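Design job #97: recover the sequence.
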């Protein structure tokens, strides 16, 4: 009788996808399909949803389907057309593709994986016992299997009451013990609501770095803006809008980083300098351009670049508009009030109408935007020159950049306001100034917030557009494979979306350098994971996520950064994140190298395992999730147990006597007794009960459905 681990009855989309998944996990599978070919007389489905394409992309085969179909950015719900083009995924569309086509592509993929498909046959009966199931086939010899899974959509009396026959099994999962997981996981943390101010505040710390400002700039701006709004008699809704406008006003800062680096050489330094000039003064603008355009290039090249920049003022206007639009989109993703999104359009506007958008000023500007302009510039000049400098600038620009009434209120309160700005406590001060009612985020809104962070990072450079989302999808798929709890997997996905947030602090001139980095450049690169961690460190609800996100360059042997310790990757989620980041980065092109093909990326990843830098089980899970076939590695059992001793221990856990164990294993009861004593010695226990507890502590016992 032929033997396979799993028999799948039915070679439609469900059966083929299951066969591919099990094969990628190293399971021996055979598919039984009544049809002699994959052809369909008619199609019951006309397309694939975004999440399905994400799953296929995680397996490395999405392009096969996408190239054969047609993408649409809207999906029908009843008689309503819903636009999904702003979903936080690179597959923000519905793929129109008839089932007859995507079944054929699935079958080709399964065939590439080496799955055996028995066509022209069907399951007609089965007999189950304690160790497996005998499957009877029409027109073919029977098959012995551990599992029979019905995926043909038809219920058959021969299978009993369920289409899926399940057998309880005991499996071994190395690396993460129950004790370790209990120490690092907080039950239900993914479902806990968090304040929007905390997530947006963490984002604002990164955008401060991306605009060359002190870390407390956006937080301080929010405090000053709300304080000024209260003096101006703003409503509670206007105060809330003002608060989030202040925190988000620079969140579009990466939207033109690549272009800015090409023009100015450094996409961060020029931003810090520009915020300190009066953009309505041609002499100051010309001086700014002369100092920063083409920095580091030969004089003749700089002159040409300067002439081109001055001849095309619309380019600058488009850049500012893009920053505002990106910030507006982030506000929408977070579900903030409409007034926040409206006011973010006017971050670069002026009271006199000479800002952007042009010709819009005065009371046509939303009050939150007018409050932002004054508070932001007070904060900027407090850092650049101190209170007196801030006072002088605000007073000088009254009636031009700012509403005169607001300037009068701000100057009258400036000394008291500055006295209350304690930089060491700015995070707590800013959170305390959020107007009531506080905005809370849960579930999908939190996910959307991390999706916004991933988008912000992706905008930093064309070379990074899909990196964070790709890492998140790969890490999530790998985590399912190693059996992490659903709560921990969701937590890992969010951390992966945010893992490169600190990249914003490093100039694009470094990220996009085509040659080797210098010592100083490498030191700045090594800091980016530190800034990722620190961006979330101030919020108790996000600090653990920040530690995980910031660990993506840590290595098992302590050779990584920024902590450079083995302890930094002690939990499995961190090991998966590190492997997923490595693989995804190698599959992407960089300015200094082309993208590696899947086979080459696999070789490099396994070389890291051989060097003791990456975890073997995490790498195997990542490779399997990416579509590679991965052979099972020899197991390293705890305490030096042998495979036979493990079998005896698991039988003890089930409460079997020595004689029953002997009969099951085909050995003598005396030999079983010797094995039991060896298990006790290696586990450091003296009883069956204690041995059972030890087995659970080391996660040797797991019931599989």
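Job complete. Output follows.
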């Amino acid at each position: 009788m032929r033997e396979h681990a799993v028999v799948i009855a039915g070679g439609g989309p469900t059966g083929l996808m299951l066969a591919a998944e099990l094969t990628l996990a190293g399971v021996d599978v055979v598919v039984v399909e009544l049809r002699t070919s994959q052809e369909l007389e008619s199609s019951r489905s006309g397309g694939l949803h975004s999440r399905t394409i994400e799953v296929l992309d995680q397996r490395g085969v999405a392009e096969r389907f996408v190239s054969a179909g047609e993408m649409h950015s809207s999906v029908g719900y009843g008689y309503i057309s819903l636009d999904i083009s702003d979903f936080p995924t690179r597959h923000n569309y519905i793929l129109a593709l008839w089932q007859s086509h995507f079944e054929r592509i699935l079958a080709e993929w399964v065939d590439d994986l080496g799955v055996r498909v028995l066509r022209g046959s069907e399951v007609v009966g089965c007999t189950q016992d304690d160790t497996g199931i005998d499957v009877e086939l029409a027109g073919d010899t029977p098959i012995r299997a551990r599992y029979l899974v019905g995926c043909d959509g038809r219920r058959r009396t021969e299978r009993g009451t369920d289409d899926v026959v399940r057998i309880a099994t005991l499996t071994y999962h190395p690396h993460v013990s129950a004790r370790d997981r209990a120490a690092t996981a907080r039950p239900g943390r993914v479902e806990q609501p968090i304040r929007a101010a905390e997530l947006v505040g963490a984002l604002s710390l990164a955008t401060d770095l991306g605009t060359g400002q002190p870390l407390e700039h956006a937080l301080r701006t929010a405090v000053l803006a709300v304080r000024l709004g209260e003096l101006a008699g703003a409503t509670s809704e206007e105060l809330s809008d003002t608060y989030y406008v202040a925190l988000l006003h620079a969140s579009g800062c990466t939207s033109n980083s690549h272009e800015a680096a090409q023009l100015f050489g450094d996409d961060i330094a020029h931003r810090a300098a520009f915020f300190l000039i009066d953009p309505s003064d041609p002499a100051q603008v010309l001086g700014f351009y002369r100092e920063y355009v083409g920095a580091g290039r030969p004089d003749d090249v700089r002159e040409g670049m300067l002439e081109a920049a001055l001849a095309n003022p619309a380019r600058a206007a488009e850049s500012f508009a893009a920053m505002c639009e990106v910030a507006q989109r982030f506000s929408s993703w977070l579900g903030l009030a409409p007034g926040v999104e409206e006011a973010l359009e006017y971050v670069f506007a002026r009271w006199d109408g000479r800002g952007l958008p042009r010709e819009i000023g005065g009371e046509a500007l939303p009050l939150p935007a007018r409050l932002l302009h004054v508070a932001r510039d007070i904060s900027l000049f407090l850092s650049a020159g101190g209170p007196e400098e801030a006072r002088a600038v605000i007073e000088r620009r009254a009636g031009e950049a700012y509403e005169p009434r607001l300037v009068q209120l701000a100057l009258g309160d400036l000394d008291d306001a500055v006295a209350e700005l304690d930089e060491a406590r700015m995070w707590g001060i800013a959170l305390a100034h959020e107007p009531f009612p506080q905005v809370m985020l849960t579930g999908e809104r939190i996910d959307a917030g991390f999706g916004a962070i991933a988008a912000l990072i992706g905008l930093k450079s064309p070379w990074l557009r899909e990196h964070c989302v790709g890492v998140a999808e790969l890490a999530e798929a790998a985590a399912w494979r190693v059996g992490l709890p659903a709560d921990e997997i969701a937590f890992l996905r969010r951390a992966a979306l945010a893992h490169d947030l600190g990249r914003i602090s490093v100039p694009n001139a470094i990220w996009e350098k085509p040659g080797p980095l210098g010592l100083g450049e490498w030191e700045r690169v090594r800091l980016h994971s530190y800034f990722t961690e620190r961006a979330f460190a101030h919020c108790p609800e996000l600090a653990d996520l920040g530690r995980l996100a910031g660990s993506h360059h840590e290595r098992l042997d302590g050779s990584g950064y920024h902590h450079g310790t083995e302890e930094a990757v002690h939990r499995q989620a961190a090991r998966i994140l590190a492997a997923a980041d490595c693989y995804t980065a190698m599959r992407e092109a960089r300015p200094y190298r082309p993208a590696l093909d899947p086979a080459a990326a696999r070789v490099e990843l396994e070389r890291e395992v051989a060097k003791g830098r990456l975890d073997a089980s995490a790498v195997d899970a990542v490779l399997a999730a990416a579509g590679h076939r991965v052979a099972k590695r020899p197991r390293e059992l705890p305490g030096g147990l042998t495979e036979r001793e493990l079998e005896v221990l698991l039988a003890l856990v089930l409460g079997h006597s020595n004689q029953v164990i002997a009969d099951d294993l085909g050995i003598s009861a005396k030999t079983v007794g010797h094995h039991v004593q060896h298990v006790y010695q290696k586990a450091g226990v003296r009883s069956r009960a204690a041995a059972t507890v030890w087995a659970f502590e080391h996660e040797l016992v797991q019931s599989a459905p």
